[in-house]
Specification:
By secondary structure, the chain is of the alpha+beta class. The chain contains 13 helices and nine strands. Bound molecules: 2-acetamido-2-deoxy-1-O-phosphono-alpha-D-glucopyranose (GN1) and magnesium ion.
Length: about 350
Amino acid sequence: MLNEPACRQAGYTNLAFMRQVLQEYDFLETGIGIRSLGSGLINSTWLLESGEKRYVLQKINTKVFRSPEDIAANIRLLANYLREKDPGYLFIAPLQTTGGAELVRYGEDYFRLFPFVEGSHTIDVVEKPEQAFEAAKQFGRFSKLLAQLDPHRLKITLPDFHNLGLRYRQFEDALQNGDAGRISQSRELIAFLQEQKHIVDEFESLKQTFRIRCFHHDTKISNVLFDAQDKGLCVIDLDTVMPGYFISDAGDMMRTYLSPVSEEEQDFSRIRIRPEYYKAIREGYLSEMGDELNATEQSRFHFSGLFMIYMQALRFLTDHLNNDVYYGARYEGHNFVRAGNQAVLLQRLQEFNTI
Ligand code: GN1
Ligand code: MG
């Protein structure tokens, strides 16, 4: 049953919203089992059990995704394109309501319902290089299948999402207008991130040689479905599929699979780069995208990790200086800790480069 914290996480105090939303789907039975699912910071997700069948319900965070209709349109475009291109590809599209809609509006909120793929599972932490390989292969496969689709047909669901130049300007803005106490407490970390600004400059110049394609933009391991043998099935969570650069996808895998501990780890001495995972990400990704990426792109595979880790450190610290308006905080200083964690990870990856 849905517990109170799960309601609160979604911004509700009781289950009325759920009843109302589920009414829109006439194939659902009464007496549904509901539990929270996943660990994303942005959307809220629940697993529903209706008779023999299972579903995944998601509330879209409209503070972040301003136009849920654009997401729905993108998913429709991808579903139609991939059905033609590779009918064997497992593409999980939202189910339609009785009225034929893919989104249900409740007040200011939007919900959607997916079928649960029986026999599949997700993982939250990469524990074996094989899992990193499989995930990288799935993200590579996804972009490879979409390589001939004009990326500009996709709607931009999050403008400037991975625009590092803009993220840096937002950081500078927070240094001017953010919480004075937090700014002075963060001096060391601020200075470190300022010293790394060359990553922004490198990105600006590399952009000229990188091709714009359709990328997933959120390649954490929990966005891959695995089968019972831990083989990758497909990628999920397609809200951020947008035109972009390969370094977003390759880089976020490095950011989230390379270290044995996540961005949440407070003991920074545990942060390190695992070479076998580095190899697995590279080989898995290139097993699909190797023929697609041009020579400059391939030569900048390592840079992708620096790019994404640096951007995440900037984003966490910016949010901390702005009193956690974007990510929220589970404890005092949460985003400061995560920013520090990412700064250490960045250093570790920079050292790894020279080995
Ligand atoms: C957010 O909600 P979640 O955990 O999937 C964020 C990502 C960050 C990540 C860091 C839309 O993703 O860009 O990398 O947190 N998504 C958005 O934990 O901002
Ligand atoms: Mg997710």
